[in-house]
Design a protein that fits this description.
- By secondary structure, this protein is of the alpha/beta class.
- Helix content is about 40%, strand content about 15%.
- The protein is built from 15 helices and ten strands.
- It has helices at about 25-30, 45-50, 55-60, 80-90, 105-110, 120-135, 155-165, 185-195, 210-220, 240-245, 255-275, 275-285, 285-290, 300-305, 310-320; strands spanning about 5, 10, 15, 40-45, 70-75, 95-100, 140-145, 170-175, 200-205, 225-230.
- Helix 1 (about 25-30) packs antiparallel against helix 11 (about 255-275), helix 6 runs parallel beside helix 7 (about 155-165) and helix 9 packs across helix 10 (about 240-245).
- The longest helix has 19 residues, at about 255-275.
């Protein structure tokens, strides 16, 4: 299987989902070593990019080894989305732009952004259309959730609208904003979206923990590829397993503890090289629990690793472990990352009154910090 999005063709139909504080350039570099696909940046605020916000500009940076530069934009103002796309393309900074209409975070939806916004059909179409116009020949894709809740599903209308204004592909996280990350992703919704927009690729997202899940999703839904988020936390080699499985080959077994520790140290060093020693090692700490999930290393060491201040300290604190220890059975299928929900979605006052009304969103709606 291959995935074609506009002029972009990749041999493996896999996309790394943007995750705040995770999918920075070092993590993308690490994942890309294992397999092909499209590796998307953290969420970038369009307004921050246009105004030259320093944090936004740093998060919008790509490593020198990133031949396919993919960025996710967030915004609620068509002018800002157009201007941001024009700047990114005009400066030769990107090859692909993804739009965030799937974020369920209350700080986003209470201002009408993220997964709340597709309910306002005209504004949604204007935002996608403005970005497509600003991007020119660079393909623009759209990330959706099923809707606000089961009484306010938007994904079919939004998918059709995105296709009508020139989106090159749509991706669906098969949960509502109310679900957050709870329960099971409803893959049947992905199949319905594929039927509704047959002329552009449809990507499925939700509950892909191991390579077999990706194969099953494509077989059951007919989608053109998969978007992988939480399943790769502490397991960047998942992209190698996906490469193999989607090509009909048996994936290699996961690394033993020694291999996992080597990847951890490599990841930490990449972060330190990119962000500097202070921010880099602190950015790495949250990954230790994901990498070592299921290994019997003791709670005291786990706590110590969350306080690590240097890469050499990380090496020293794990030096006594038995590197030949096999990767624990069943750990790949275990959930990691966000598991919260369901929770009532916070929305602006009167948001659900009229889906065809064009709302006047307060300035805070466009001021969401880049990265999430």
């Amino acid at each position: 299987m291959t995935l074609r999005i506009g002029p972009i063709e990749v041999p493996t139909p896999v996309v790394l989902a943007p995750m705040a504080g995770i999918t920075n350039a070092p993590f993308r570099t690490l994942c890309r070593r294992y397999g092909g696909g499209i590796y998307v940046s953290e969420m970038i605020g369009a307004r921050g990019l246009v105004e030259g916000n320093q944090k936004t500009l740093q998060l919008a940076g790509f490593g020198p080894d990133e031949e396919l530069r993919s960025i996710q934009l967030y915004g609620t103002e068509p002018w800002a989305m157009r201007a941001a796309a024009e700047r990114l393309v005009g400066e030769g900074r990107v090859d692909h732009i993804d739009l965030n209409f799937g974020c369920p975070a209350p700080k986003v939806t209470r201002h009408g952004g993220g997964a709340a916004l597709p309910f306002k059909r005209r504004l949604f179409a204007d935002l996608v259309g403005a970005t497509v116009e600003g991007a020119g020949a660079v393909p623009v894709t759209v990330k959706l959730r099923m809707g606000i809740d089961d009484d306010h599903l938007t994904f079919l209308d939004a998918g059709r609208a995105a296709a009508d204004v020139g989106a090159a592909a749509v991706a669906l996280h098969a949960r509502t904003a109310e679900q957050l990350y709870s329960g099971r992703a409803r893959w049947d919704a992905i199949a319905r979206l594929k039927e509704a927009v047959p002329d552009i690729p449809v990507l499925g997202n939700g509950d892909i923990w191991v390579a077999a899940d990706a194969v099953a999703m494509i077989e059951r839904t007919g989608c053109d590829g998969v978007v992988v988020g939480r399943g790769c936390l502490g397991r960047p080699w998942l992209f190698g397993e996906l490469d193999a499985a989607l090509a009909g080959r048996r994936p290699s077994p996961p690394p033993d503890l020694g291999g996992v520790l080597d990847v951890m140290v490599d990841h930490a060093r990449l972060l330190v090289d990119w962000f500097g020693p202070h921010i880099g090692i602190r950015s790495f700490r949250k990954h230790t629990g994901w990498y070592l999930k299921g290994f019997p290393i003791g709670s005291a060491l786990r706590a110590d690793l969350h306080q690590t201040d240097e890469v050499d300290e990380l090496v020293a604190r794990t030096a006594h472990l038995d590197r030949s220890m096999r990767y624990p059975d069943g750990v790949g299928e275990m959930r990691r990352g966000h598991t919260n929900g369901p929770r009532r979605v916070r929305l602006p006052h009167g948001w659900l009154d009229d889906p065809d009304a064009t709302p006047h969103l307060e300035a805070a709606a466009a001021a969401v910090v880049s990265g999430g």
